Amino acid sequence: MADAALFEFLHTEMVAELWAHDPDPSPGGQKMSLSVLEGMGFRVGQALGERLPRETLAFREELDVLKFLCKDLWVAVFQKQMDSLRTNHQGTYVLQDNSFPLLVRMASGQQYLEEAPKFLAFTCGLLRGALSTLGIKSLVTASVAALPACKFQVVIQKS
Amino acid sequence: MAVPLPGDKTVVAQNYPLYIRSVPTESELKFHYMVHTSLDVVDEKISAMGKALVDQRELYLGLLYPTEDYKVYGYVTNSKVKFVMVVDSSNTALRDNEIRSMFRKLHNSYTDVMCNPFYNPGDRIQSRAFDSMVTSMMVQVC
């Protein structure tokens, strides 16, 4: 149980550190920090994508991979499953988490809505990294309507 | 007199080798060639598994094809990284579950390599820990 708290604290500090040294408060500077966070999440996701599916059977199709993300990856990192997965069957998936553990300690409602994206960048990278190890190129974005619920949108890039 | 049996382990991703090791070290080019041709067989097996409506999809592919001198075994991970093992045919002591356990050890070591922050995915594997694990496996076989 303490492991979850360790990751949450580390993540909070990572975000705080990147923002503390950011002298450029304009959108350009912020984008840099967001992409650094996303890059970190990407590398971690690549390693997790190799380690977690180890004993599971081979994935048969894209939807299986997404289901794996929603169940096994989310449980491994956040100790809970994703609340809902929707798809348009044309390469876009929306993963919804109604009480995202990294946001749940912040607020419940509309407060701190502008700050929320910083805390989602790492997780977006995590999803993108895990997908990339499993052979799927994608673009992951996150949106928050009301804390602590958030949605991750995964768009598969067909190359 | 005991003759050292040639063995060869390869890790392949996106169809270029990440790691090749063989004992004895001569005729390494021949092993390169064999591994490359066996990739076709691996791909064929993967696509065959995809089409057949089998619930169980194993990662271990089994004996890929026997040539007159060697037997080739394959294993593919969920991240589409292929492990190919070439063993001398005269070594009949190797049973199927031994091969499976060797592949499992390879997979575990490869996962450790992936989790190393100094390793960039797609590079050749230069980890000494991986090397020593492969050496110990080959010594055990040969």
- How much of the sequence lies in strands of chain B comes to 25-35%
Largest interface chains and counts: A-B, 16 and 19 residues
**CA-based gyration radius of chain A:** 15 Å
Q: Reading side by side through the largest sheet of chain A, how are the strands ordered?
A: 1-2-4-3
Largest sheet of chain A: 4 strands, antiparallel
Give an overview in words:
The complex is a heterodimer of chains A (159) and B (142). Chain A is of the alpha+beta class and 159 residues long. Chain A has five helices and four strands; from the N terminus they run H-H-H-E-E-H-H-E-E. Chain A has helices spanning 2-20, 27-51, 62-78, 101-104, 118-133, and strands at residues 84-87, 92-97, 138-146, 149-156. A four-stranded antiparallel sheet of chain A has the order 1-2-4-3, with helices on one face. Chain A is globular and about 45 Å long. In chain B, a hairpin with a 3-residue loop joins strand 3 (60-66) and strand 4 (70-76). Helix content of chain B is 41%, strand content 26%. Chain B has a five-stranded antiparallel sheet, with helices on both faces. Chain B is an alpha+beta fold. In chain B, helix 2 runs antiparallel to helix 3 (128-141). Chain B contains three helices and five strands. Classes of the chains: A alpha+beta (159), B alpha+beta (142). Chain A binds chain B through residues 43, 46-47, 49-51, 53-54, 56-60, 133-135, and chain B through 49-50, 56-59, 76-80, 107-108, 110-111, 114-115, 117, 121.
What descriptors fit this protein?
heterodimer, A: 159 residues, alpha+beta, 4-stranded antiparallel β-sheet, 4 strands, 51% helix, 17% strand, globular, B: 142 residues, 5-stranded antiparallel β-sheet, 5 strands, disordered N terminus, Trafficking protein particle complex subunit 6A (chain A), TRAPP_component (chain A)
